[in-house]
Amino acid sequence: MIRNILCIGAGYVGGPTMAIIAKHCPDVRVVVADINAERVAAWQSGVAPIYEPGLEDVLRMSLGRNLHFTADVEGAIPDAEMVFVSVNTPTKTFGQGAGRAADLQHWEKTARSILQHARGDTIVVEKSTLPVRTAEAMERIFKSRDGGARFQVLSNPEFLAEGTAIEDLEHPDRVLIGGAETPDGQAAIQELVDLYARWVPRDRILTTNVWSAELSKLAANAFLAQRVSSINAISALCEQTGADVQEVGRAIGTDHRIGPHFLRASVGFGGSCFEKDILNLVYLCECYGLEEVGRYWEAVVTMNQYQKRRFVQRMIRAMFNTLADKRITVFGFAFKADTGDTRQSPAIQVCRELLGERAFVCVTDPQALDGARRDLADAGPRVSFTPDPYEAARGAHAIALLTDWREYRDLDYQRIYARMERPAFFFDGRNLLDPEKLHGIGFNVYPIGLPERSLL
Ligand code: NAD
Ligand code: UGA
User: Whose Cα sits closest to atom 43 in ligand 1?
Assistant: First the structure.
């Protein structure tokens, strides 16, 4: 029975996942360690450094009791019987595989640190999303030195989505655990199964070999992103033909073999993982000489780039082929609703292209303005930021809605229209609002995958 858990990496995955484990396993001491002292201090204070609905309530249940945060990563290793590795694995920006391969430097440093400081037998759990066969590399690092401690490496990829992380962790569709097919490997798997079984029904805990677990994570994200790119590809055709992408999505999704989820056309998918994980999958395919397989998955990312570009092109065309010196208000900068995360948000590319057209851009968002300021730090004086959507819309020629925040549904659009320039344009990148209603107020409306409703 495991009594001491350490998680290295206190980010979007490490923080919430460990808070849930601590909640359901009050007899287990859970320590979360991170080199980012500022992040650690925020977690320690009970005010999470990330915005995630319901997180702080769960955090406060165990904080200081059986859940602890520390910046002393090395000092926390010796006592741990099980170490989750939840560090970031971004796309490599340098050297071989730049722009595609996963950057494994944080992960490898962590592995070496575990090797150096572990005292007894330790189960190491890959929580980060990693290329297939990373566990093998990790094992080789662990075997590189004869010491007292023995290691078992498990792959336990995380499937939570931001904005619904707590719900996803409380009621996961499945928990996936991959491990070696040896008696020691199976014993390690059982330890982790027993931990999750405290709150996850046993039939939702899947055990596989370690490679299947690693690959399933990349494949799951690729399949999800592929659905978004598929419906976005159809949205382009809808705009040309008069078909309505929402009606098409409903018609397709009622087929139980296809299912209704992830068929919302949008300005494009964002987030720290979809693009990174697909590019990583493509790179793996190339490394194994599977060029055609790589090209197939790469098309999902290509379509996403196209969708973001197409959104801006439609804006330019609608607004008489020039945006120069026009004021464009951006409603929402987070990559999706209910998060402050802006990593790979479509808003970044859209804003940059609008600024490239010499427009003035005013960004508003209920949670992501700090991220927006960071992402557009080099954009100069043509970009401004305000938390107040009414203020943001003052004197605007157009609004581009890029994040599906619920609060944008409830705004007084009559009031917003009254403070805008004429003709007023509304580009709904999430199909959040009723185009008929907006049109009735006086807007020229451009939803995704639907014909425009123009007054001109
Ligand atoms: P993140 O950037 O929010 O957090 C990673 C943390 O690791 C950072 O706080 C960083 O300071 C810390 N770190 C890096 N190197 C370290 C080291 N040597 N020692 C201690 N701490 C170190 O990243 P995230 O979004 O939590 O993602 C983590 C992993 O989980 C990634 O592989 C990602 O692909 C995967 N994942 C993310 C999500 C998500 O929704 N964000 C969901 C599923 C899986
Ligand atoms: C995604 C997966 O859903 C998680 O299972 C996975 O664990 C995670 O990636 C990860 O590995 O990081 P996340 O990126 O947080 O989670 O959010 P999603 O809900 O998947 O949305 C991703 C993007 O697709 C968002 O920009 C969202 O707006 C967009 N999207 C989603 C659409 O445009 N249309 C849809 O129908 C669904």
Answer: 158
